[in-house]
Amino acid sequence: MPRRYAEIYPSLPLLNSDASEHVSAAALMSLRYFQAAPDTMPEDVFAEHHVLLNLQPEPHRVQNRRDGELHDFIFRKDDIVVTPAGMRSGWRWFATSDVIVVTLDPERVAQFAQREMGLLLDPQQFRDLPLFTDPDLCTAGVMLRDALETGDVTSGVMFEAMSRVFLVKLLQRYGQERPEPVSRSTGFTAAHYRRVLTYIRARLDQTISVEALAAEAGMSPSHFSRLFKETLGSTPMQYVMAYRIEQAMEMMGDPALSLGEIALACGFADQAHFSRSFKQVTGETPRRFRLTLAV
Questions:
Q1: How far apart are CA 27 and CA 44, in angstroms?
Q2: What is the pLDDT of residues 39-82, one digit of tens each?
């Protein structure tokens, strides 16, 4: 069974975002910062994607084994290695490290890409990224680390903001969309998805029907519903409800907005309807969720 990457670190991190009390920040990604003496990490299969960013200014030798293939290389400042979930991976480094390790839940990454960026990611995401150099992405990682290091009441808020910046940069540059189906006339493509998402965003405060979404995709309602569920794993109306709730959760971070205002802005008939739907999806009431944001 795949493990969490943090379970086999040979040493404790200097910083660890799992200690953050900001719930929504911790849900998007985890960050750990290490300065570790030469050591090894045994090969294992992990349930998360992990992104290793090298901050060490001095070039040094590193070995990384990926699915049985050994990569022996000189690690230079701003070099990055991305290992996708499900790939067997192990490490050995020959000098004191100075690295940031970002771990990402594949399902949450896919949801973020879909709802925030209009991308349908290839299931084989990140498999072709054994080593590359990206100073800008490393800088974004350092800003994430520095947000944790402040340790004050703004730390969680800053970490959440920078985590979104980091993930957008990573997916814009290296995210791979699903290949188009062989028959474009019968498949649900990334272009279809973007049109549907644009329609939902523009009419979030209104009633949205399967028929309207299907028309936007240029399909019959039954054909659209079947392909949508095959591609995204939920029915169109389940997706619309989840999107409404997700947008409401973001809006609840603004104390100036009442729950009634948020309910109407996100397409619910009234606050009571919003509360029932929110609890059905998340397991807690909007009021209780809002209290956790204020902690």
A1: 23
A2: 999 889 988 999 999 999 999 999 999 988 999 999 999 999 99
CA 14 to chain centre: 23
SS (H, E, C) the chain: CCECHHHHCCCCCCEEHHHCCCHHHHHHCEEEEECCCCEEEEEEEECCEEEEEECCCCCEEEEEEECCEEEEEEECCCEEEEECCCCEEEEEECCCCCEEEEEECHHHHHHHHHHHHCCCECCCCCCCCCCEECHHHHHHHHHHHHHHHHCCCCHHHHHHHHHHHHHHHHHHHHCCECCCCCCCCCCCCHHHHHHHHHHHHHCCCCCCCHHHHHHHHCCCHHHHHHHHHHHHCCCHHHHHHHHHHHHHHHHCCCCCCCHHHHHHHCCCCCHHHHHHHHHHHHCCCHHHHHHHHHC
pLDDT in tens, 81-126: 999 999 999 999 999 999 999 999 998 888 888 888 888 888 788 8
At residue 24's C-alpha, the angle toward residues 22 and 26, to 5°, is 70
